[in-house]
Amino acid sequence: DVQLVESGGGSVQAGGSLRLSCAASGYTYSSYCMGWFRQAPGKEREGVAAIDSDGSTSYADSVKGRFIISQDRAKSTLDLQMNSLKHEDSAMYYCAIDGWGLGPETYKIWGQGTQVTVS
Fold first, then answer.
1. DSSP state of 99
2. What secondary structure does DSSP assign to 5-46, as a single string?
3. What is the pLDDT of residues 55-64, one digit of tens each?
4. Whole-angstrom Cα distance, residue 113 to residue 9?
């Protein structure tokens, strides 16, 4: 079975940094887009950052210049470096694969999520 496991979430003060990681197993996804998404209580899930197989990236306007998505397809890992965190970045963060761009509805495989809280 395909599994995605996120790690690296936690609590941090505004202005701080966190690095999220996603490890994939049971899946070869060399040709698909991978992404990070988040969902705050009472809000819809939204795309944060995505990276294609050629390394091209896309970011939500709200995180541009602060977050960096990276991948290591040989190791089947996907990371999200989050800097200058704001209170509004607080959410459950999910990684997903086998999708397209920043639209969560296009992604087929999801992790269980990791909580990020910015105080």
1. E
2. EEE--EEE-TT--EEEEEEEES---TTSEEEEEEE-TTS--E
3. 899 999 999 9
4. 9
Alpha-carbon gap, residue 110 to 59, rounded angstroms: 19
Give the Cα-Cα-Cα angle 26, 31, 37 (nearest 5 degrees).
Answer: 75
Rounded Cα distance, 119 and 115, in Å: 13
Instruction: Classify 1 as helix, strand or coil.
Output: coil
| Residue 58 token pair | 């896309």
What is the CB neighbour count within 10 angstroms for residue 29?
18
For the chain, the first-to-last Cα distance in angstroms comes to 37
Per-residue tokens: 5: 């496991």
CA distance 13 to 82: 12
Q: What is the pLDDT of residues 65-96, one digit of tens each?
A: 999 999 987 888 899 999 999 999 999 999 99
Q: Which residue has the tokens 């306007």?
A: 61
Tell me the sheet residues that pair with 79.
21, 70
Q: Give per-residue pLDDT as tens, 99-114.
A: 889 999 999 999 999 9
